[in-house]
Amino acid sequence: MATVLTLTATAILTTTSAAGSAYAVPIAACPALYVIGIQGTGQSSPTADPLADSGVLGTLMAPVLAAAPGLVQRSYISYRAGFGGIVPGGGPDPYAASVRDARNQLDAAAAQVVAECPGSLIAGVAYSQGAQAMSAFAQDVGAGVGPVPPEKIAAIAMYSNPTRLEGSPTFPGRPGQAVPDPAPGTNGDAVSRIQIISGPASGSGIASTGVGYGMLAGRVIDICVDGDLACSAPDNAALLRIGAEIAAQANLNDPISAIASISALLSDALGDAWTTIVLNDFQVGGGNVDYIPQQSLSTRLIDAADPRTAAPSPQDADTAAARWSEVTAAVASNPLILLPRLVGQLGAAWAQLLADNAALANPLVWLHFADTVARHNGYAARGQLASGAAWLTAVAYDIGSRS
């Protein structure tokens, strides 16, 4: 079951349509609001036209441009938008590398807008894979360590965000909020008449980081349709998340390369997890050995598989090997006492690992995600983008009316 759900997770992250053609940050004349968009997997490329209102985000931006002429400019990040080479229109790079490409270009674009148009504010809109890059950007800006100051960001709208926080409301960190906070330096008059309401979504993003948006809270929305596996992955499905993280780094161009790539990545992840477990979760001293986990096995495995987590250093591996030698020596010297204790401790950890994956054995979970691809691809058709478009339009008028 875990294998099938992992493949489904890969599918919904990769079933978006392809779009057009050289990236730049085109700025005609400094607008009130400059919107930077990042399309989903397969909807962009390094040669995509940055002004083409195509894909999911084109559906959102077209009414904004029509409703606020002269106040809004926009461009889209022209990035690889790939998933290991298996998505039509997407590049050959692994998903994780593609996200890094989008994030790097987003940082440069935002910094350029601030440098060239100090009176303008920035909004970000993003979908699916693009939302993962946008989320990382917003997390850093909100923490005060991004490429631009928080007061330069008027709005961030994300749809089907793979890093959505567990059980996150529409405004992350602001349960019950429906009206966006005013853009910095504005009275918020137009924005105060906007309500952004989205149905609740269970679970969290398939690549959730658990990190919030700090100083941007209230100006970030995270729209997720329940049952969209990209942003609403079930709780208690750790192996699903591990599989998705492995697939995000793999070369999937053909079956042979995919098997070799996934095998190598899985081996590395297991080795990294073991090193971390030995260093942090085994306590040795005074002739005693205990397995006292600081984090669960599921968390250790998820972190080890996550490309955003730094791998243990060679020095860490050497230290872990020496620690394990201490463990085996201590157990060999007193097996009648230490072995039963360790068996009990490890048994409890194994039971927790099974509990952390209980959703994978639940038929109701399978039924809930039976149409996950349609949900993932249906944000425009279901009208989920309309309130975001109204918000950006209101933001532009509020900025434009500043004295």
Give an overview of the whole structure:
47% of the residues are buried. Strand 1 (33-38), helix 2 (55-67) and strand 2 form a beta-alpha-beta unit. The chain is α/β, with parallel strands linked by helices. Mean pLDDT is 87; it is low at 1-23. Helix 2 (55-67) crosses helix 12 (386-400). 43% of the residues lie in helices and 9% in strands. It folds into 2 domains: 2-237 and 371-400, Rossmann fold (3-Layer(aba) Sandwich); 255-356, no CATH class. The strands form 2 sheets. Strands 2-1-3-4-5 form a 5-stranded parallel β-sheet, with helices on both faces. The protein has 12 helices and 7 strands.
Highlighted features:
403 residues, alpha/beta, Rossmann fold, 2 domains, two-stranded antiparallel ribbon, 12 helices, 7 strands
CATH arch. level architecture of the largest domain: 3-Layer(aba) Sandwich
> What is the mean predicted local confidence, pLDDT?
87
**Biggest β-sheet description:** 5 strands, parallel
Low-confidence stretches: 1-23
Spatial ordering of strands, largest sheet: 2-1-3-4-5
| The named CATH superfamily of the largest domain | Alpha/Beta hydrolase fold, catalytic domain
Q: In the CATH hierarchy, what is the class of the largest domain?
A: Alpha Beta
Number of domains: 2
CATH third-level topology of the largest domain: Rossmann fold
What's the SSE blueprint?
Elements: H1 2-12, E1 33-38, H2 55-67, E2 72-76, H3 95-116, E3 121-127, H4 129-142, E4 153-159, E5 220-223, H5 238-249, H6 255-281, E6 282-285, E7 288-291, H7 297-305, H8 314-333, H9 335-355, H10 363-368, H11 372-376, H12 386-400
Parallel strand pairs: 1-2, 1-3, 3-4, 4-5
Antiparallel strand pairs: 6-7
